[in-house]
C-alpha cells in the first residue's frame, strides 16, 4: 500500500529530470548566445542582453513562472482579441516551466560563460588567426575546450540550483515528484514521510551531479598546473 | 488593461512588501550570527565538528527550499507527540514555520560562503596574531571574523538577494507577502497580467536597492582587497 505510493512518487521524478534537462539545454544555448553578444563590440547586441540578465535575475523564480504561465497567455489573448482572431492561447505547465527555467538559467549561464570567455588570453585567439584557422575552428578548437574548464564551477552551481528550481513547477500543476508527494501525503496522512522521500530524491541528484562534474572537471583540467599549496 | 485594480489595491501591495522585507530581514539577521559560528566550526581542527556542519550544509543546500518548507509546515503534523507538546502553537503558525525554514536554508548557504572566505585568508595573518599572543577568542574577534566577512561580501550580497527572492515561497503557505497579494488579486478580480507584473516590478526595485547597498558596503569595507590602481 505504502510502497505503491512510494513508487508513484519516485516515478514522477523522471518528469522532474526531463524538465531539468530540457531547461538546461535551453539555458546553455541562451547562455552561449548571451555571452557572445555581451562580448561583442556592437551596442545593439549588448544592451538587450544586459536588460535580459538584469531583469531575470532581479525577479524571484516563482514570480517569473507565474508571469510566463498566467500573465503571458493573458496578454497574448488580449492582443488576439484586439485583432479579432478567435484563438485561445494556453501553455501547459511543463512547457511554461521549461521555458521559464531556461530563461532564468540562461541569464545565469550568460554571466558564467562571459566570465569564462574573459579568462582566455586574447593572444591565443590572435595566434590561431595567425595560423589561418577559420573563426569556427578557432572557437571549436581553441576557445571552447578552455571555456568548459573555466565555466565548469559556475555551470555546476547553476545546474544544482536549476534542479531544485523544478520543484516550483509543481505549483503550476505539473505532475512532478513534488506534486505526487503532496498527493500521497494527503492520501495517507503521512506528509513528513513523503516530503522526505522527495527531498531524498533531490539530494541524490545533487550528490551524483557533484561527483560527475568533479570527474569532468579533473578531465578538462589535465595539463593545467595547479598552484602548489 | 485594468491597472486601476492595482491602484485600488496599492495599500495591499505596500503591506505585502512590508511583510517581504520583514521576512528577509529576520531570516538574514538570525542566520548571520549562526553562520559566523558555524563557519568557524566548519574550518575547525576537529574532523567530527567539521563534517557535522558539512553534512548540514549539504542536506539543506541539496534539497529545494519548497520541500524544506512543506516538511516543516505540513510534515511535522504527522508526529502525534509533537502535536501534543507545548511547542505546537508555534509550529502550527505559518509565520514561524516559514521563518524556521528560511533560517535553516540561508544559514546553510551563508555558512559555506563565510567558511570559503575564511579559507582564503593568508596564513601569515593568523600566524602574526598568534605571535602577538592573542587568545583564540581574540583571534576570532579581531582577525578571523572581520577578514572572513570582508572577503565574502560579494557572495553574501548575492545570498541576501536569493533570500529576498525566496520569501516569495511564503505565499504557498498562506502568507500575504508580495507574491501572495498578487495571487490573491488575480483570484479576486480575474485578471492575470497586471498583478504579477506589479509584483515583479516591486521585487526588481527591492533587488536594485540591495545591490546598491552592497556596492556601497564593498567600497566601504572591502576596498583594501581590491588591486591597487595607478
Descriptive report:
The complex is a heterodimer of chains A (229) and B (230). By secondary structure, chain A is mainly alpha-helical. Chain A has one domain (2-220): MetI-like fold (Orthogonal Bundle), CATH 1.10.3720. In chain A, 80% of the residues lie in helices and 0% in strands. Chain A has nine helices and no strands. Chain A has helices spanning 2-11, 13-39, 43-58, 61-83, 93-118, 122-130, 135-165, 177-188, 191-220. In chain A, helix 1 packs antiparallel against helix 8, helix 3 (43-58) packs across helix 5 and helix 5 packs across helix 7. The longest helix of chain A has 31 residues, at 135-165. Chain A is flat. The model of chain A has no long low-confidence stretch (mean pLDDT 91). Chain B has 230 residues and is an all-alpha fold. Chain B has one domain (3-224): MetI-like (MetI-like fold), CATH 1.10.3720. Helices cover 77% and strands 0% of the residues of chain B. Chain B is built from twelve helices and no strands. The mean pLDDT of chain B is 92.
Element string of chain B (H = helix, E = strand): HHHHHHHHHHHH
CATH fold-level topology of chain A: MetI-like fold
**Portion in helices of chain A:** over 70%
Provide the helix percentage of chain B. Answer: over 70%
Task: Write the CATH homologous superfamily of chain B.
Answer: MetI-like
Sequence-ordered SSE layout with sheet pairings:
The complex is a heterodimer of chains A (229) and B (230).
Chain A: H1 2-11, H2 13-39, H3 43-58, H4 61-83, H5 93-118, H6 122-130, H7 135-165, H8 177-188, H9 191-220
Chain B: H1 3-8, H2 10-42, H3 47-62, H4 65-73, H5 80-84, H6 88-91, H7 94-119, H8 123-131, H9 136-151, H10 153-166, H11 178-189, H12 194-221
Amino acid at each position: 500500500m505504502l510502497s505503491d505510493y512510494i513508487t508513484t512518487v519516485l516515478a514522477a521524478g523522471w518528469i522532474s529530470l526531463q524538465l531539468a534537462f530540457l531547461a538546461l539545454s535551453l539555458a546553455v544555448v541562451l547562455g552561449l548566445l548571451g555571452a557572445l553578444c555581451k562580448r561583442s563590440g556592437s551596442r545593439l547586441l549588448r544592451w538587450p542582453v544586459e536588460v535580459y540578465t538584469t531583469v531575470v535575475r532581479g525577479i524571484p523564480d516563482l514570480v517569473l513562472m507565474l508571469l510566463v504561465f498566467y500573465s503571458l497567455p493573458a496578454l497574448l489573448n488580449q492582443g488576439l482579441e484586439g485583432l479579432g482572431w478567435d484563438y485561445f492561447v494556453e501553455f501547459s505547465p511543463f512547457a511554461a516551466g521549461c521555458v521559464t527555467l531556461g530563461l532564468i538559467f540562461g541569464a545565469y549561464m550568460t554571466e558564467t560563460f562571459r566570465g569564462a570567455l574573459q579568462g582566455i588570453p586574447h593572444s591565443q585567439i590572435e595566434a590561431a588567426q595567425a595560423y589561418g584557422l577559420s573563426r569556427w575552428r578557432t572557437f571549436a578548437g581553441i576557445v571552447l575546450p578552455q571555456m568548459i574548464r573555466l565555466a565548469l564551477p559556475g555551470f555546476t552551481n547553476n545546474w544544482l540550483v536549476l534542479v531544485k528550481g523544478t520543484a516550483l513547477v509543481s505549483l503550476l500543476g505539473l505532475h512532478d515528484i513534488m506534486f505526487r508527494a503532496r498527493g500521497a501525503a494527503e492520501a495517507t496522512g503521512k506528509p513528513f514521510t513523503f516530503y522526505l522521500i522527495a527531498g531524498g530524491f533531490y539530494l541524490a541528484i545533487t550528490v551524483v551531479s557533484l561527483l560527475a562534474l568533479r570527474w569532468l572537471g579533473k578531465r578538462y583540467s589535465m595539463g593545467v598546473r595547479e598552484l602548489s599549496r | 488593461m485594468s491597472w486601476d485594480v492595482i491602484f485600488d489595491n496599492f495599500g495591499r501591495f505596500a503591506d505585502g512588501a512590508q511583510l517581504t522585507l520583514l521576512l528577509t530581514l529576520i531570516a538574514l539577521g538570525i542566520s548571520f550570527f549562526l553562520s559566523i559560528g558555524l563557519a568557524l566550526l566548519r574550518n575547525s581542527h576537529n574532523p567530527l565538528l567539521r563534517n557535522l556542519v558539512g553534512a548540514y550544509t549539504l542536506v539543506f543546500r541539496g534539497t529545494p527550499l519548497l520541500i524544506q518548507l512543506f516538511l516543516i509546515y505540513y510534515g511535522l503534523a504527522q508526529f502525534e507527540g509533537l502535536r501534543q507538546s507545548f511547542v505546537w502553537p508555534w509550529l502550527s503558525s505559518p509565520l514561524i514555520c516559514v521563518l524556521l525554514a528560511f533560517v535553516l536554508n540561508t544559514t546553510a548557504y551563508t555558512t559555506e560562503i563565510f567558511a570559503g572566505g575564511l579559507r582564503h585568508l593568508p596564513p601569515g595573518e593568523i600566524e602574526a596574531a598568534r605571535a602577538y599572543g592573542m587568545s583564540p577568542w581574540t583571534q576570532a574577534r579581531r582577525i578571523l571574523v572581520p577578514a572572513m566577512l570582508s572577503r565574502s561580501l560579494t557572495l553574501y550580497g548575492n545570498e541576501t538577494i536569493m533570500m529576498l527572492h525566496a520569501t516569495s515561497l511564503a505565499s504557498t503557505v498562506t502568507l500575504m507577502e508580495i507574491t501572495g497579494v498578487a495571487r490573491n488579486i488575480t483570484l479576486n478580480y480575474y485578471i492575470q497580467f497586471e498583478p504579477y507584473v506589479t509584483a515583479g516590478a516591486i521585487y526588481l526595485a527591492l533587488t536594485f536597492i540591495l545591490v546598491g547597498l552592497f556596492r556601497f558596503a564593498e567600497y566601504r569595507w572591502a576596498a583594501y582587497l581590491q588591486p591597487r590602481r595607478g
